[in-house]
Amino acid sequence: MGKYKLVIFDLDGTILDTLDDLADSTNYALKSCGLPTRTVDEVRRFVGNGIHLLIERAVPEGTDAETVEEVFETFKGYYKEHSADKTKPYGGICRLMEQLRQDGCMVAVLSNKADFAVQDLCRFYFPGLIDYAAGEKAGVKRKPNPEAVFALLEACGVSAADAVYIGDSEVDVATSENAGLDGISVTWGFRSREWLEEHGAKVFADTTDELRKLL
Questions:
Q1: Beta 182-186 vs 106-114: how paired, if at all?
Q2: What are phi and psi of 64, to 5 degrees?
Q3: Alpha-carbon distances, residue 20 vs 25, 26, 124, 125 (angstroms)
Q4: Phi/psi of residue 146, nearest 5 degrees
Q5: Over the stretch 68-100, which tens digit does the pLDDT of each residue have?
Q6: 3-state secondary structure string across 134-145
Q7: Do residues 105 and 7 touch, judged by C-beta distance below 8 A?
Q8: Residue 155 to residue 105: CA distance in whole angstroms
Q9: What is the tens place of the pLDDT at every residue in 13-57?
Q10: How far apart are CA 197 and CA 202, in angstroms?
Q11: Is 202 helix (H, G, I), strand (E, B) or coil?
């Protein structure tokens, strides 16, 4: 057994490289509604706070609420069918999960992505490797609010002192702090190390081997 009984991973930018599919789905929805598209790098900056906020950021400033909802619904329908077109696990992640489970450590995923997508992607890319997965659900506050973390800890029967939260964004840094968990920031995701440091990150992993040593 390593330092922790439970390792909680963020999804997008942490264990799965989902950026291209998110960008393609965003641009499909924007174009379908007669709006200008966005670059992949713009979408990279927009993700992290759930797909509704992704769409709010992607539409032109001043877009009316009705159009935002139309883009959002179009995005959801398209992404449900195309969430695994280009998405792939980051190198070494599946092996790391296997090692953690062999060591008797539970593995969980907690994301601000819609719960249907979290469940589908975890089943597809990490079959048999994840003990608990949760995405954005009605009635549960999104990260960085700690509510979903507390629900996850209770479901797994683990205290905050025995868990660690691993992510790639400032939202994840704040989530671990708000929930009273140790936090580790990976540098291969959607935010730069400099950005993460500016937002309070203190422990970093540049590779899955480094991450393994920290756990």
A1: unpaired
A2: -70, 155
A3: 9, 10, 17, 16
A4: -80, 0
A5: 999 999 999 999 899 889 999 999 999 999 999
A6: EEECCCCCCCCC
A7: yes
A8: 15
A9: 999 999 999 999 999 999 999 999 999 999 999 987 888 999 999
A10: 7
A11: coil
Output phi, psi for 135, to 5 deg.
-120, -165
In sequence order, which residues have a C-beta less than 8 Å from that of residue 30 and are 6 or more positions away? 36, 37, 38, 58, 59, 71
The token pair that represents 106 in the structure block: 């539970």
Q: Are 185 and 159 in contact (CB under 8 A)?
A: no
Closest of 14, 148, 145, 135 to residue 79, by C-alpha? 135
Q: Strands 6-9, 106-114: parallel, antiparallel or unpaired by DSSP?
A: parallel
| CA distances, 149 to each of 115, 119, 198 (Å) | 14, 17, 24
Measured from the Cβ of residue 5, the count of other Cβ atoms closer than 10 Å reads 17
Q: What is the pTM of this model?
A: 0.89
**105: amino acid identity, one letter:** C
Contact 11, 18 (CB under 8 A): yes
Q: Which residue type sits at 143?
A: K
Q: Residue type at 90?
A: Y
- At 111 the three-state DSSP class reads strand
CA distance 44 to 182: 25
